[in-house]
Amino acid sequence: MLTRLFSNFNENLEEKNFQKYLKSAKKGNAKTRNKLDSDGQCNLSRCYQLDSGTIKDEKKAFQWYMKSAEGGSISGQYNLGDCYRNGIGTIKDEEKAFQWYLKSAEGGDKSIQWYLKSAEGGSIPGQYNLGDCYHNGIGTIKDEEKALHWYSISVEGGNSYAQTSLGKIKKTKDEEKIFHWYLKSAEEGNTDGQNKLGYCYLLGIGTTNDDEKAFQWYVKSAEGGNSDRKKALRWYLKSS
Questions:
Q1: For FRET with 17, which of 100, 190, 198, 213 sits at 20 to 30 Å CA-CA?
Q2: By its UniProt entry, which SUPFAM superfamilies does this protein fall under (predicted)?
Q3: Model pLDDT for residues 52-61, shown as the tens digit of each residue
Q4: Who's near 60: CB < 8 A, 6+ residues apart?
């Protein structure tokens, strides 16, 4: 009984919210519409997208996200980017997704002084997605420095996904440096460097996995008298 009452209450609340958002979204015209109207359009879009208080309609969700984004709503810009990226209510278009993520991440309409403090620097999810676009070359050329920049800003805002992505990039960069110095050491005849370089090739640390090169450097290291590498070489040959 209580479950049914709670369910009915939720449905009524969702319908009321939908009507409120619809009224806000349709308020005014292009010249008089303000940010509240744009945010109302974004909320209305979510209702259509998530089947909240109305029938699910992804095309209408996309249309209202577009109006919201063009009206300066950061959330609208971010969600419109998602629509283009995932083909929600429209054809997939990674370049357009990137452009709207960029607009969202940069903070949208900077002339509006009364943004919430948490949104003054831009949309945190938008910043993360923009970093993702730069990192994976989605809608733009790959650029790790820019990816690091936007991931870092999103991390400062508390985005856990950005923390993971930032960690992966930094680890990769650190591994590449480690590989570089092992290679330099190995080429100069250092048996310990040759040992560790073989290990990098074997496991793909800072470079692509290459068993043949791993074996070659293990042999060089062993021939140079590295006892640790002799053991590792025996293990390598046994497991091959």
A1: 100
A2: HCP-like
A3: 777 889 999 9
A4: 45, 48, 89
